[in-house]
Amino acid sequence: MDYIIIEVPDMNDSVSRVVLNGKAYHIRFTWNETGGYWKFGLYDTQNEPIIVGAKIVPRFPLNVFCGVTKLPDGVFGVMTKLERIGRNDFKDGNASFVFCPVEIGT
Predict the structure, then answer these.
(1) I want to staple 9 with a disulfide (CB 3.0 to 4.6 A). Which of 14, 70, 77, 87 is the partner?
(2) Domain total of the chain
(3) b/e string for 5-43 if b means 16 or more Cβ within 10 A?
(4) Host domain of residue 92
């Protein structure tokens, strides 16, 4: 399985540019201090929202229930052995935010 590791900056709120399946997007990561969890959002290059405030949980396809056609073909998820992802787990290498593109047969 091929996947792309997407860097989660060591910031409580950040927006980065990422290219998925040859198309540019903006991805936002936000740490929710009160709830103790990360969430992410995906936007097109005009900052139009595609996914907003999706809670990041370990080992689960994060966009599986999003019926949005603007999504890149693939699945967002977190690779980790942890049951919960803490504030520093991406920075410390205990978790990796990934995108697994769908392989289209020829």
Answers:
(1) 14
(2) 1
(3) ebebeeeeeeeeeeebeeeebbbbbbbeeeeebbbbbbb
(4) 4-101
Which pLDDT tens digits describe the chain residue by residue (106 residues)? Answer: 689 999 999 999 999 999 999 999 999 999 999 999 999 999 999 999 999 988 999 977 776 666 666 778 888 999 999 999 999 999 999 999 999 888 765 4
Virtual torsion, Cα 18, 42, 68, 105, nearest 10 deg: 20
How far out from the chain centre does Cα 102 lie? Answer: 15
Report how far residue 100's alpha carbon sits from residue 102's, in angstroms, rounded to the nearest whole number.
Answer: 7
31 part of a folded domain: yes
Chain mean position to CA 41: 7
In a domain, 43, yes or no: yes
How far apart CA 60 and CA 13 sit, in angstroms, is 22
